[in-house]
Amino acid sequence: MASPNSIDKILRHVLSLSLAPLVGGCGIDTSGFETLPCAADGRTPYLAGVEPGAPADYIELRMSTGPGGPTTSTLEFVGEKCSGAADRPACEEKIAAATSSKGFHLGDCVDFCPDHVLIVNTGDEVTVLDTRDGVMAWLGPVNTPADAVLAASLADYTVRCSKPDEGGVRPAGDAYEVLATRYTEICDPIERTLYVLAVDAGGDVQELESEVIESESGACVGRRPAGLLRTAGRGATQVGAYFANVAQLEAASVRAFEVLGRELVHHGAPRPLVERARIAGRDEVRHARVMRRLSARYGGRWQPPRVEPRPVRSLEELAIDNATEGCIRETYGALVGMWQGRVAQDPLVRRVMTRIARDEARHAKLSWAIDVWVRPRLSAAERRRVEEARRGALAALEDEARRDVDRALVVHAGMPDVQAARRLSRNFAEAIAAGG
User: Fold this and answer.
1) Distance CA 75, CA 59 (A)
2) I need a surface site. Which of 117, 173, 281, 363 has the fewest CB within 10 A?
3) Positive or negative, the Cα torsion across 122, 124, 127, 128?
4) For residues 369 and 280, is the Cβ–Cβ distance under 8 A?
5) Least confident range of 271-275, 291-295, 405-409
6) Angle at 262 between CA 258 and CA 268, to 5 degrees
């Protein structure tokens, strides 16, 4: 196991990367879009206001549990079931029994990708629509805002309800423009992009403008406090959004060290540890300020962090958080910062990250010093749970290292690409296990 005195040695790893310049741009003006009100369950409504090519008595949207699975829940419906049927009981039985082994997606699909089907009832006839093309043919000409939203959702874009900056619709001549989002990277970084889409009368969807509104990676950042409510930064570029998110995390670290200092006092920690936590908090104030400026340099717009208050944690909870957020993630973050300080193409990024990495290395030493102090005060079972959490944090880092990184971040922010990240995480894990 590593010790506070071995951290500097652990953080001296190989650095190598080739870079190229990146050009910035402007953000999207989201004014003028009509925001969609959420349904009672908080979902985006898809059927309210839709005008299909052929009239229907009743339309029902269902979601199934998975491919080939039975439809299990009704998400939304409009009209009156079997209101025009000659044999209403038989019609209602058809609707109840309607199902399909296929289905279509609505909105962006990342982890949970449910299938949907549309049940359409006209008179005694009940039709199951289970493909995107089938729904678009049924919809006919796009001539209402709701039609445009449905078309965009069927094209794998998410139109957020009750979020003026992430979802809306407005007329544009004979067509419509839709404000929607989509995950454009689901690895490292996790990247979400905002789009202005043109939806023409035939239902074709075209991207007019785009803006990265969220980009998060294994950055050189401080501790994340418990209760952190993330509000993603935005940016005209991946790099701008990335640094905006780093600025938010650095600002959140101020709160993390304030809480840590109070909890150390509560549990009777030595005064030097408490004072080092307070100094680290002051470092994070400076880091957040510098990162905001760096974000603005690349067209980023940060959002201040929101942290829910939490009760004082037990000594075991403090030890687990310190082992994962401090001994592992903060120490590895210092290593990534050292990498960025060596290889970033932008001289300003290199200077900023070199300075921040030095501070984060000191914070990492504090984490390991707290670990040394707290370990004898825990029971054998508590120490075992702390070690399990530490190993889990190391495994998570190695999983993240297998994910690809957007070239823009490699080029201008100096983030390690997948090959370099694998070397760094592997060498880091081995050094931590060997005690440096």
Assistant:
1) 11
2) 173
3) positive
4) no
5) 405-409
6) 145
**Phi and psi based region of residue 299 (left: phi greater than 0; alpha: psi -120 to 50; beta: remaining):** left
What angle do the packed helices 347-374 and 271-297 form, to 10 degrees?
160
Q: How far is Cα 162 from Cα 205, in angstroms, rounded to an integer?
A: 22
pLDDT at 296 over 50: yes
pLDDT digits (tens, 9 = 90+) for 35-45: 999 988 788 99
Residues 6+ apart with CB under 8 A from 286: none
Residues 6+ apart with CB under 8 A from 223: 253, 256, 257, 260, 325, 326, 329, 330, 363
| Cis ω before 189 (30° cut-off from 0) | yes
- In angstroms, the CA 192 to CA 31 distance is 20
3-state helix vs strand vs coil in the chain, percent to 5? 45, 20, 35
pLDDT for the residue 27: 63
**CA geometry: angle at 28 spanning 291 and 410, to 5°?**
45
pLDDT in tens, 359-412: 988 999 999 999 999 999 999 999 999 999 999 988 888 888 887 777 888 888
Coil, helix or strand at residue 417? coil
Q: What are phi and psi of 25, to 5 degrees?
A: -165, -165
Q: Token pair 């039985």 is at which residue?
A: 93
- Name the helix (H) or strand (E) containing 419: helix 418-433
4-17+217-433: which CATH topology? Ferritin (1.20.1260)
Please state, in angstroms and rounded to a whole number, the distance separating the CA atoms of residues 204 and 152: 9
Q: Where are the domains positioned within the chain?
A: 4-17+217-433
